[in-house]
Design brief:
The protein is an alpha/beta fold. The protein folds into 2 domains: 155 residues, Rossmann fold, CATH 3.40.50.2000; 179 residues, Rossmann fold. The protein is 35% helix and 15% strand. The strands form 2 sheets. A 6-stranded parallel sheet has the order 8-7-6-9-10-11, with helices on both faces. Helix 4 packs across helix 5, helix 8 crosses helix 12 and helix 9 crosses helix 15. The protein is globular, with a radius of gyration of 21 Å.
Amino acid sequence: MSNYNLQNFKNICLLRSGAIGDIIHTLPLVNLLSHKFKNKKITFAMGRELAELMSYAKGLDQIVPISINSNIFNLIKQTETLKQASDGQFDLFLNLQPNWKTKFIAYLMKPKQIYNYEKSANISPYQISQGLDLKQHAWENFALTYFHELDLASENIQKFFPLIELPEELKQNSLNSLGLNKKEKYLALVLGVGHHRPHRAWPLENWLNFIELILKKDFSVSQIILIGGSDEEFLAYKLMQSLPSFARSRIINLCGKLNLLASAAILSNCSLAIGADTGPTHLASALGVKTIGLFGPTSPTRHSPFFGIGLSNSEHECLKSCSQKKCSKTLLNCMESLKPEEVWLAMNEV
């Protein structure tokens, strides 16, 4: 960004629709903007389904629900709502999801300045193993896109954590509703990744072996909590049916039983969360929970947890060219090859 006057940025808007993980990766940028531009109003236009949870995100002054998957007439109507929220006109409009619809909204908004996000290359685990890692997390990519002169990517974002801070009463009520004790050590396992990109998921057999490993070796874990949406209900059912009765007694299956805010409340009470590259995993990290991310076809550099580590098998052969939304490999794939023992060892590193 060049030729700008910081004092003119009194009213800033960010636009990003999409899944919870996509929004969470923008939150360090939100906090950096709030920190750098004192006494400024920051508005975030995002999906309505995320508004309740994100009302607890730091750095945001206002959330305006918006749906990008709408016809042009509905987009115009939503733009009018966003205009009303701008108190006249936005000084700066950051389009974090550039496509023709978001650019159309930005055009109708007529802010003083518009900047469209430019995504850097998604570095694969294989490229990382070859020394081609750009060492750039998604939030750094956002920061570098917009504010080169301010050098936001060099800032220590740890001072802003947790990025989402839930009230203690809400967290305690979530425990009470399940008969849990705040003093106990709970381990959250994010079983699935939804149905859009199933090749990002850790296989059921790996989860089963990992749980058996935990129950044999880690007696400090009070209970294991399974986290997931409706897409994970059958997966959780299969897992529970495959475990012996003594193991099932130490597991609380919450897949498909909680909304997003309730899931966040439960995650915030856990001492550790483990999951693949999916929303609840990133949510746990944003809540300040130590997190282990399991990566295969996506980059651990770009999407690693803010608090914790990202694991991947960078030596897997097919990662050389993996850019697919579905895995076509019929033999051992990159997520299957990430062994339970590796995850177990990583628990001692976070």
